[in-house]
Amino acid sequence: MSNNLITHVRKAADSVAVIDISGELNGYGEETLMEAYAVASNGRSQTIILNFSNLEYMNSSGIGLLVTLLIRVQRQKQRLLAYGLSAHYQQIFELTRLNEAIAIFDSEQAALTAVTTPA
Amino acid sequence: MTTLRGFWRSKTKAAPAAETPRILNTTETAVIPPTALIPIDLDIAPNDPLLAYIRQNPAVFDAAQLKLDSPAVAAMRQAGVRLPLVSQGELIGLINLGQRLSDQEYSSDDYRLMNDLATQAAPALRIAQLVQQQKLEAVERERIAQELRVARLIQQTLLPQELPALAGWGVSSYYQPARAVVGDFYDFLYFPDGKVGFIVADVTDKGVPAALVMATTRTLLRAAAERLEAPGAVLARTNDVLVQEIPPKMFVTCFYAVLDPATGHLRYANAGHDVPYHHTGQGVVELRATGMPLGLMPGMAYDEKETTLAPGDYVLLYSDGLVEAHNPARGMFGFPRLQSLLSTHADGATLHHFLLAELAAFTGPAWEQEDDVTLVTMQREGAVNSEQLTVNSHPVEFEIPSAPGNERLAMARVAEVVGDLLPASRLEKLKTAVAEATMNAMEHGNLYDPDKPARLKVFVEEAPTSTGSVRVTITDQGGGKPLQPAATPDLEAKLAGEQSPRGWGLFLIQAMVDEMHVHQDDQHHTIELVMHLADDHA
User: Fold this and answer.
1) Going by C-beta distance under 8 Å and a sequence separation of 6 or more, which residues neighbour residue A25?
2) Domain range list for chain B
3) What are B95's strand-pairing partners?
4) Domain of A104?
5) Torsion of Cα atoms, B121 then B124 then B128 then B131, to 10°
6) Which CATH class is domain B159-379?
7) A97 at the B interface (CB within 8 A)?
């Protein structure tokens, strides 16, 4: 139907989980995204990294979804990172100031380095 | 009985058809075998006294007895023609009789018989001649008609099937061949950098030969324009090749211009063609550039000139069929009349209609078109107010059924229409804005009712003060209630639970486009999105 979101969760490092996102991130992907988040958190991951490399389309409802996810992540005292965003969606992250709450990296390696290096 | 063995046409070219005599070589087959018949080739001069004699004595006569100082009669005697002539006041043919078998003179009964025969045979022979003539004429008519068909076919293959679709420009063409046969042609060339070539040409002949020269010239022009940028060089190159190919005494007049639609810049050169007119805000200007017609002599150089079309300006290319049309008093339409007419008419879109009406008024209803009439006009759109903006641009309209996810259809359609007009990054922004507005229309306006589609219009238009814009309007059917104001969503407030996580739509739209306008009435909301074509709002 209208949910064309596909997620895949994998462990990238100690207490770091990556959610690979592909397809469309819109209002209809809520269940899929929250399930993926639950799987990712199950291993008591402190850090969740969203991989947007295969994102085809994201709309304002999808942004709303990310805000909802962010609220949960913050309640769990986890960190949310992202990489693989196209220039267009990076700009949207900046406009909505989502980039201030979700740190954006160029690659998975850069995100992992930032996580494992003490601030 | 007698046997008719053959016809010999008179070589008397000057004689009218009715006086062209034919000779029937007859004989009595019982005695002389057919192989013994001698064809008689008889020349009768138009002033031969025999013709006058026959007019006065429309009856059979005996060449041997006739006392007339006539070379034709002398020739008949020499050939042994005894009894020439089938006549009906006109010399239509001759019956050639030999001697009687008895070697006696022909009797008066014989002459009566001959006269009766001549009276019967003359009209029959005349009819046979006419039938023969008509058959030949029918063959000739069919040949000409076939030639016209071939010429028209060549012409149809060569003339452009479509007009250039240029954002911010109106291009129109009119073509009316005289006698169904071509001499004129026009062409549009498209270059990778977005420039467009305009060609109007006239071949000095009609029919298949002109069509073939036209085809050759068109190919040569295209080939030259592919390798050479300067219009003058293109004409010079075409001329040098064409001069080797073209039949003697034929030549081609040709105007060639290259337009940069982005700036209105026009470079042009002219090979002896009628001088085009440039309608500007300050008056009508001739686009003069000197050069010899193509195909006359090799090594010609062509002047190259340039001008710029300001918004609202147009350039008219045309052929001599318009300016050289005559009225019943043999007055000519002429250049001054055309120029003054143009100065009164600013709208390129209606120009051809206007000029053809003026031409019809000038020539009168009985006018038979003397030459091909070709008109090609390019006008840079120049909207003065928003009302005119809408008139000048031709929106692409479509409907999107209200169903979840269908905003992506709207994005794809808009992207298809806008194409390269916007740089990729700005097109992405417009697509996002279109998706958000369409989603709003389908969800909040139409409540995902499949019977209430979202309606979209895409305008590509030119404004006088800037280089133009793309406008997209998205209309729902949920008017009456106010649209949500574009309140700035606050991420911190959302994270703190003070605002809904949602509500990014209008904010996003506003951030994506250069201008956003909202219109509403009792039935509809319309969101209007504007992206300027010049990248000054990136």
Assistant:
1) A5, A33, A55, A57, A58, A59, A62, A65, A66
2) 17-131, 159-379, 387-532
3) B24
4) 5-116
5) 160
6) alpha beta
7) yes
Choose the closest CB to A97 out of B491, B500, B503.
B491
Q: Residue A36 sits in a domain of what CATH number?
A: 3.30.750.24
For residue B508, give both structure tokens.
């996003």
Residue B199, C-beta contacts closer than 8 angstroms, at least 6 positions apart: B185, B186, B187, B188, B189, B218, B221, B254, B255, B256
- Let me know: does A47 contact A75? Beta carbons within 8 Å: no
Residue closest to B530 by CA, chosen among B382, B391, B418:
B418
- Greater confidence (B466 vs B130) lies with B130
Q: How many domains does one find in chain A? A: 1
Q: What is the pLDDT of residues B245-254, one digit of tens each?
A: 898 889 999 9
Name every chain A residue with its beta carbon within 8 A of the beta carbon of B425. Answer: 87-88
Across the beta sheet with B184-190, what order do the strands follow?
A: B184-190, B196-203, B252-260, B265-271, B305-308
Give strand pairing partners of B531: B470
User: How buried is B174 (Cβ within 10 angstroms: 0-12 exposed, 13-18 middle, 19+ buried)?
Assistant: middle
8 Å CB contact of B508 and A95? yes
β-bridge partners, B472? B458, B529
Beta-bridged to residue B24, according to DSSP, are B95
Handedness of CA A95, A98, A99, A101 (dihedral sign): positive
In which residue are the tokens 């739509």 written?
B505
Please tell me if residue A59 touches chain B, with a CB cutoff of 8 Å.
Answer: yes
- Please give the class, per CATH, of domain B387-532: alpha beta
**Cβ A92–B495 below 8 Å, yes or no?**
no
User: Do B207 and B181 contact (CB within 8 A), yes or no?
Assistant: yes
Tell me what ipTM this predicted complex has. Answer: 0.89
Token duo for residue B413: 């359609």
Nearest CA in chain A to B497: A71
> What are the tens digits of pLDDT across the range B64-99?
777 888 888 888 777 665 555 555 566 677 766 666
